[in-house]
Automatic annotation (TrEMBL):
CDD domains assigned: CAP_ED (cd00038)
Organism encoding this protein: Streptomyces spirodelae
Domain Cyclic nucleotide-binding: 8-110
Protein name, as recorded: Crp/Fnr family transcriptional regulator
Highest rank taxon of the organism: Bacteria
Lineage of source species: Bacteria, Bacillati, Actinomycetota, Actinomycetes, Kitasatosporales
Any single Pfam family the record assigns to this protein: cNMP_binding
Length: 153
């Protein structure tokens, strides 16, 4: 399975997507809008419908490097699932964005009520998290490591 199929909402089984979509609301962000900043409370997450969102990381004394660019069907935000529910990265709309927005408390309640949904969401978010950690490592080595330190790809 490639990164595109493991990091999009389609990686979540259809029956579980159908449980989540009724509680989503459609939102829009103009280009340049910050969806969240590192350290803020993670109360929502989004699935991109159109446009692109960049994930960035605060680096003291430097401009925040872009870790990854997300597009159609991809999950924006992971920290809503894990206490203390604080964003570990920042996110910005790089173009006008339309997305599905989910209230994290409502999704966590649905998951507590349905162990199968809970397991499916946990596996989905874990796959996305694994991909994002690899992307962050590679990007930071590209930016700050000695030449060639990112290793084989």
């Amino acid at each position: 399975m490639n990164a595109a199929t493991t990091t999009t909402m389609n990686a979540l089984p259809a029956e579980h997507r159908e449980q989540l979509l009724p509680i989503a609301r459609q939102v829009s962000f103009p280009q340049g809008a910050r969806l969240f900043l590192e350290g803020q409370t993670a109360g929502n997450f989004w699935i991109v419908r159109t446009g692109t969102v960049t994930l960035d990381m605060h680096v003291p004394g430097r401009r925040s490097p872009v870790i990854e660019t997300l597009g159609h069907g991809q999950l924006v935000g992971l920290s809503w699932l894990f206490p203390p529910y604080e964003w570990q990265l920042g996110a910005e709309a790089m173009s006008p964005v339309r997305a599905y927005e989910f209230d994290a408390d409502a999704v966590r309640r649905l998951c507590r009520a349905d162990p199968r949904l809970d397991a499916a969401v946990a596996r989905w978010v874990a796959r996305v998290l694994s991909h994002r950690l690899h992307a962050a490592r590679t990007r930071l080595l590209d930016l700050f490591g000695p030449y060639g330190s990112a290793g084989p790809r």
